């Protein structure tokens, strides 16, 4: 009887934020239509490495399993992407899994996305509403604007664009493509526009839009196909206008 087909994984692991990373190999029984998450689940059920030695289960994050939550971002064969949509049949083997390097590692493939969430807070990436009472329907958005705004709203804060961007690293305070694109989204909203100048002002500070080097890696890597570079280009113009306004208001 022929040996059952298996899938080989080389996983970069790290026991704690302060410990050194190391690699461990695993072999998982092959099943049709497997994705990386299902393979990690198999390792979790039977935590033995390729040599048959018992080990600790690999830690990773996931939630929706349908490329909506953005939690399962990791490096798969060196490329930042979502593990839930990474099909085994379409990946070169052995499959190499590693945490994204832009963010601090918590354990194994789990990362700390605090840098990205802090950037979203910095640019006020939300629509402020005064009070909890019913204010009635808000102003309507033109259909032409709504269509491209919807594309920007697909952002799932997965962090892939920050990982792909060469300007986002531990030596730079550049906030990255995703927060910049969210500024364009919320500035386009009829209610969010009230805080437009504050968001633009945040982009004019250190680590803001001037940190973009126009590598365009972000738009090529975005799992949702968000036109990130289009947003950055549009906001470059808006920031310039805001700068002139600031001069004349002094």
UniProtKB/TrEMBL annotation:
Keywords: 2Fe-2S, 3Fe-4S, 4Fe-4S, Iron, Iron-sulfur, Metal-binding, Oxidoreductase, Tricarboxylic acid cycle. Its cofactor is [4Fe-4S] cluster; [2Fe-2S] cluster; [3Fe-4S] cluster. Residues 146-174 form the 4Fe-4S ferredoxin-type domain. InterPro entries: 2Fe-2S_ferredoxin-like_sf, 4Fe4S_Fe-S-bd, 4Fe4S_Fe_S_CS, Beta-grasp_dom_sf, Helical_ferredxn, SDH/FRD_Iron-Sulfur, Succ_DH/fum_Rdtase_Fe-S, Succ_DH/fum_Rdtase_N. Gene3D superfamilies: 3.10.20.30, Alpha-helical ferredoxin. It holds the Pfam family Fer4_8. The keyword Ribonucleoprotein does not apply. Its EC number is 1.3.5.1. The keyword Lipid biosynthesis does not apply. Coiled coil: none annotated. PANTHER family: SUCCINATE DEHYDROGENASE [UBIQUINONE] IRON-SULFUR SUBUNIT, MITOCHONDRIAL (PTHR11921:SF29), SUCCINATE DEHYDROGENASE IRON-SULFUR PROTEIN (PTHR11921). Belongs to the succinate dehydrogenase/fumarate reductase iron-sulfur protein family. This is succinate dehydrogenase. It comes from Paenibacillus thermoaerophilus.
């Amino acid at each position: 009887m022929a040996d059952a087909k298996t899938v080989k994984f080389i996983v970069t692991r790290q026991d704690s934020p302060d410990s050194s990373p190391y690699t461990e190999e695993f072999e998982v029984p092959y099943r049709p239509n497997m994705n990386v998450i299902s393979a990690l689940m198999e390792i979790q059920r039977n935590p033995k490495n390729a040599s048959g030695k018992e080990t600790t289960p690999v830690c990773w994050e996931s939630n929706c399993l349908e490329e909506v939550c953005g939690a399962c971002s990791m490096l798969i064969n060196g490329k930042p992407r979502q593990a839930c949509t990474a099909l085994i049949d379409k990946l070169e083997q052995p499959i190499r899994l590693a945490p994204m390097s832009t963010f601090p590692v918590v354990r194994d493939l789990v990362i700390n996305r605090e840098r990205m969430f802090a950037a979203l807070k910095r640019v006020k990436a939300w629509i402020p509403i005064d009070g909890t009472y019913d204010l009635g329907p808000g102003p309507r958005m033109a259909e032409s604007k709504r269509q491209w705004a919807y594309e920007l709203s697909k952002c799932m804060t997965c962090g892939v664009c920050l990982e792909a961007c060469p300007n986002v690293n531990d030596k730079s305070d550049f906030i990255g493509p995703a927060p910049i694109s969210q500024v364009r989204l919320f500035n386009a909203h009829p209610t969010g526009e009230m805080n437009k100048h504050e968001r633009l002002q945040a982009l004019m500070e250190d680590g803001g839009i001037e940190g973009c080097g126009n590598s365009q890696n972000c738009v090529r890597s975005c799992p949702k196909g968000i036109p990130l570079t289009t947003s950055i280009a549009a906001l470059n113009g808006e920031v310039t206008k805001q700068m002139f306004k600031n001069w004349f208001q002094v």
